[in-house]
Amino acid sequence: MKYLNVLLLFCILIVGCSVNNFNVRNHANHIKSSFEKSNPEDYYNVPSKLELLSQLEKDALHKQYNTTNNFSENVLGVKTMLHTDEKVIALTLDACGGEYGSGYDETLIDFLIAENIKATIFVNARWIDANMEEFLQLASNPLFTIENHGTEHKPLSIRSNYAWGIQSTTSQEEVVNEIMGNQVKITKLTGYTPRYFRSGTAYYDEASVKIANDLNLEVVNFSINGDAGATFSRERVKQSLLHSTNGSIVILHMNQPSSNTAAGVKEAIPILISQGYEFVHLSDYELK
User: Fold this and answer.
1) pLDDT tens digits, residue range 91-123?
2) Which of 132, 224, 243, 247 is exposed most, by the fewest CB atoms within 10 A?
């Protein structure tokens, strides 16, 4: 118990440094509830988890990776479906962060909670810093699993590329830093080490996917583009979701509360449920 108290205090100090004018007691309560979500042994093991992450990082930095010209959303090694014929769908929600991407779609999240709908949330480090209280609440809710959406929301490549006008990482070291900065942050804050990674823009080269794999992460994109970066109309969001099939992975965004994403999801989900679909976490199935 003494060790757990020290660990909680350590986490509170980290949080206090990253967010100004935030109530420390609230942070402690949210962190504690997040810890209680899973096996308590996970949180006694945070130091050993961080030690493992450090070793994985060192190994990845010293390994040689071959460059290729392939740079897209669907390069070799990227997973886009659940490996099942069952009537299940995995909703994935991106929280991108940054100047224009740090909102919180409370309407969307409240709907999923009210309807008991599971979702996998890919969270960027910048979004965490801007929404610490909401992040810890999401991490403590068993309906949601928290996964890694990068540190600065960059496309992943070991040489210079662009996706949607956004500069990629440009070296092996930058790829590792983009992944591991947020991997360590999430582990420190929640005690959980993410299993899945999605880059900013969901673009990669093959080398960066291999690097992520060597860092014990599966790279996950999607088979259904649910809201096109929170730009679709309500009807287009709805129709996109209704194109889901057995094992679909859907991408949506929970960082644009003024978008039509929540409205479209609220119309599509009841229809999909009436068709016999169940909503699951990525971790409930193998991926392909």
Assistant:
1) 999 999 999 999 999 999 999 999 999 999 999
2) 243
